[in-house]
Amino acid sequence: MSTPTPFEAFQTIHGAPTWDDIVTGHDFGFLGTLEIQGWVPGEGPAATRLRALRGEDLRTFEAHLWAACAEAVGKTPRPGSTRWSQAQDRWREALLREALSAETTTAQLARRVEQLYEQVGCPEDMLVMLKPSQPWSGLPATVDPRAVQQFLSRTSRDSSHRSRFNL
Question: Using CB atoms within 10 A of its CB, is residue 8 exposed (0-12), middle (13-18) or buried (19+)?
Fold first, then answer.
């Protein structure tokens, strides 16, 4: 069985993504242009242009993505905004859940959690679950799977997966 893509993991945990999820997922490097172009809903001019980009025109993909998002929901989430933070939390949760369910050893889980820390960042309450690797000493990352599960349990209770602003 193959490992799901980040997009598949996201959809398994959260269902259909919002524009905020797509923009944030792209900014963190989880989504490629083809995945996004295959997802783009709507028939507005910006959405149509985004789906049609090919070849050299892909150099302007990000600007077209932002325009299509603004066309669909009024504005584009940016780092520091509430919408951005909520989407970042949804990505973090989906990828942690996927890692916890997929990895067979704590060493593998530690590598995945460390990679997620580096790619997406982590809130303070995530810091207890991982001791990062220390290349200068040869120590690998270590993780407490129970702490990961506890974090995810709190996330499920506390998160606002679909606020009214993410429609």
Answer: middle
The per-residue pLDDT for 103 is 66
Using the 3D structure, point to which of 40, 73, 106 is the last residue of a domain: 73
Q: Determine contact, residues 120/91, Cβ cutoff 8 Å.
A: yes
Residue percentage of the chain with pLDDT more than 70: 90
Distances (CA, A) of 134 to 113, 114, 119, 131, 141: 15, 11, 17, 9, 7
Per-residue pLDDT band at 160 (split at 50, 70, 90) = very low
Q: Which two tokens stand for residue 24?
A: 């944030």
Per the structure, the count of domains in the chain is 2
Residues 158, 92 share a domain: yes
| Tens digits of residue pLDDT in 113-140 | 888 888 887 777 677 788 888 888 888 8
> Last residue of some domain: 15, 38, 73?
73
Q: Are strands 130-131 and 142-143 parallel, antiparallel or unpaired?
A: antiparallel
Domain hosting residue 122, numbered range: 87-162
